[in-house]
Amino acid sequence: MPDTHVPRPQAATREGGRGSARLAPARSTLALVTLCAAVLIAQLDTSVVNLAVDPIGRSFRADLATLQWVIDAYNLAYAVLLLTGGLLADLCGRRRVFMAGCAIFTFASLLCALAPGIALLIAARALAGLGAALMLPASLALIRVVWPDPAARGRALGIWAACNGLAFVIGPPLGGVLIGWSGWRAIFLVVVPFGLAALALAARTLPDSADPADRHFDAAGQALGMAALGGLVVAAIEARRAAPAALGALAIAGAALVFFLVVEARRGAAALVPLRMFRIGAFRGAVVATAAMTFGMYGVLFLLPLTWQSTGRLDALDAGLALVPMALVFALVSPFSGSLTQRIGARAMTSGGVAVIGGGLLILGLTAFWQSVPAAEIGLILTGLGMGIATGPLLGVAVAAVPAARSGTAAALVNLARMVGATLGVAILGSVFAAAQGGTAGLRLAMLLGGLVQLAGAAVAWREARPGERVVR
User: Fold this and answer.
1) Cα→Cα distances 434→29, 65, 236, 392, Å
2) Does residue 250 share a domain with residue 161?
3) Does any domain span residue 123?
4) For residue 57, what are the domain limits?
5) Which end of the chain has less Cβ packing within 10 Å, N or C?
6) What is the mean pLDDT of each successive set of 10 residues along the chain, which is 473 residues long?
7) Domain tally for the chain?
């Protein structure tokens, strides 16, 4: 599912004061190549880094909590800055913000590849998350500008979204090959030339546009949201290693969350997160189910390759190949989720898809001690199937539940929930894994917990679905 903010229609542009910028066919094709290259390299980064966790740990002699930060530094920065990235694109110009994000992401990838120590690697991963939070919302916003015709825009969006699935299909085997051939640094270094190419193409092919009217930067909401989510992640990751610090972080997270709710409630419709949207059950259920979905999925992507490699069951290449069936099923099923929703209903698709993921995680937990990789593949295939079934319909439910003027905000909030779930999944399930002393015992406990969270998310999605309900403006 694309991770981005969707702009309001009829945006004012810097180049003519209208909501679109028609390009010549050749230039529009290059523009789409540029935007697709950005989402492809960002999603490739997400899909391959999990394979490198074990080699990175051995290279720097890092413990599990530190390795969790290698993944979650990116996820956390991306999650807390996602809405702000979309807002900055509207305020400052979408091409400008896209290029800034692309440059930051490319530079951060180079820093990751050259990092002499784990601390700099984690810092560079956070910087890459900032780049992605600027680059991806602006890329989808530019599609709205370049292709004003709904049919043409639909085709462009389909190609853009397909790059997400393509990245998850080719990422694991590519990462395994690169790690086996040249070590873990290669997975970051390979991004650099593609990032530079996208940056050069952007300057030549993308129009600029902005929509600054009645938009304001919510600094208080941004800071408090960052403190709340960041404190919660610190508490989850550091609970075993530094209990007093974890308790302090948890207290800060709780206080920040209270103040965040107060500040956002006072700002009303101008808030970074309009709280009134959460009054509607269908939207609330979609957000909860989306967070639960990625909580389990990212836990699998983090812990399963780590366990396979640390126990000697598979090397990096074989682990990457073993993940391909999950990604392939996800990519194959996703395009049909819309027609299936028309047949059996969004409520069954969303809650049923998340429940299927839960079943996959429970199978991974119950077969954790088995030496047979095909047994794990059953759980992975179910996980990919559930993702393919539920991802699109969850976004559709959230957007359809609110007035058209709020559709972009709804899409952005669902994608925020996606990244919050991913961040907490790596933090919490990783800590559960460590508490059980890692290995297959830790994997079993973490997967069983992740499966139960999935089933709870499915239950919430089913209970909260109320067709026809609309949020108050």
Assistant:
1) 48, 8, 11, 33
2) no
3) yes
4) 25-208
5) C
6) 41 41 64 86 82 91 90 89 81 88 95 95 95 86 77 73 75 85 90 90 83 69 85 85 86 92 82 81 90 91 91 87 88 82 86 94 92 87 91 81 68 82 90 90 94 95 69 43
7) 3
